Amino acid sequence: MRQGNLIIKNASQLVTCSAFSAKKGREMSDLQIIEDGTVIITDGVITYVGKDADCPVLSDFPNHKIVDATGKAVLPGFVDSHTHFIFGGYREEEFSWRMRGDSYMSIMERGGGIHNTMTATRKATFDELKEAGRKRLDSMLKLGITTVEGKSGYGMNKETELKQLEVMKALNEEHPVDIVSTFMGAHATPAEYKGREDAFLDYMIKEVMPEVREKDLAECCDIFCEKNVFDIGQSRRYLTAARNLGFKLKIHADEIVTLGGAELAAELKALSADHLLQASDNGIEDLAESGVVATLLPCTAFSLKEHYARGRYMIDSGCAVALATDLNPGSSFTNSIPLLFALACIYMQLSPEEAVAALTINGAAAVGRADKIGSIDVGKQGDLVILEFPSYKFLPYHIGMNIVEKTIKNGVVY
Ligand code: NIG
Ligand code: FE
């Protein structure tokens, strides 16, 4: 991937989000902003962050491109830490059914939902999935996303799970947006294993997971822990097997009913527990204590017309909260960062500062990369966004509008 030399001068706000691990609770309000700030990136890595007045003489950097950020805010690139962006087909009919009153789970239970996308993804060729994925990545880059997590889970057999992960590997090599891949073989039980969930998990654990590991196709492993999908015992078994193989853990937890997924994530020291609309007080306390990132997906709650996860309460309880789009063809067919900011602030009562921390340093922590990305710190990757406006406060305020003027990836301007 290209590594650029770049100086961004005189930003009205350099929103550094400085940290090398997740910001928890009240720390999320402290974005460590430098006014009239300058950043220097050399060979793709940040080498100077500070006041413009104190920055080294520019004539010492003859090979650096210079961008004047007067009147603009500069932030770390956004980290979308939960998506399912490689999929075949669409589910626009199901959206209409849901607007008529059908529930997400009832559509899935009668063979639609995830099963519908599984059939289309099994049918799609490698190249079809890759081209669709590339377009989605192009759109992400325009919205300021510099790292995205992507899950498999629309194959539910070895061939297609590997195909999805290989598509992400190829795209990661070709596209500026970094992709963190997650193996999610346990997304639902396919028809051929209906009623035999444990046998299906055995197949995933014994036949698929080790091959994913051997081929180094995913860093993380995830499961849909939910009533009528995989219960706590099954999730513990699958995630423990994944951990033993060296995967970092993530879990779709307590989305539709309170099952104890948050507690399980804390017990297993997962990177993150995601969704959490129905997480119990106890589960939230466990997440805060264990430092497992609570990843909230307000676009999904909006799309499914559910109430929102208790973001305010989680931060007040000391959790590290991350925000992500959950881009997928069913429950959240959007990768809109502007919508995400607006929903998080308006409906989950996050402050603009907390929302920024949630989509930068805490997103980075949710993919296990807080030491490399998520803040503007010396030594980190030169991944930044330049806004059209002088303050980060415009992100939730300019509702639904993309105010990212430029996205910088490894010091290269896009
Ligand atoms: O995070 N809840 C389970 N998985 C996805 C949805 C996948 C789909 O509907 O295709 C989610 O919302
Ligand atoms: Fe998801």
Structure, briefly:
This protein has 414 residues and is an alpha/beta fold.
Description:
Helix content is about 35%, strand content about 20%. The chain is of the alpha/beta class and about 425 residues long. It has 2 domains: about 5-75 and about 375-414, Urease, subunit C, domain 1; about 80-365, Metal-dependent hydrolases (TIM Barrel, Alpha-Beta Barrel), CATH 3.20.20.140. Strands 1, 2, 3, 4, 5, 14, 15 and 16 form an 8-stranded mixed β-sheet that branches. The chain has an 8-stranded parallel β-sheet with strand order 6-7-8-9-10-11-12-13. Strand 11 (about 270-275), helix 9 and strand 12 form a beta-alpha-beta unit. Bound molecules: N-(iminomethyl)-L-glutamic acid and fe (iii) ion. N-(iminomethyl)-L-glutamic acid binds next to helix 3. N-(iminomethyl)-L-glutamic acid (NIG) binds near residues 84, 117 and 328.
Give the key terms.
414 residues, alpha/beta, TIM Barrel, 15 helices, globular, binds N-(iminomethyl)-L-glutamic acid, binds fe (iii) ion
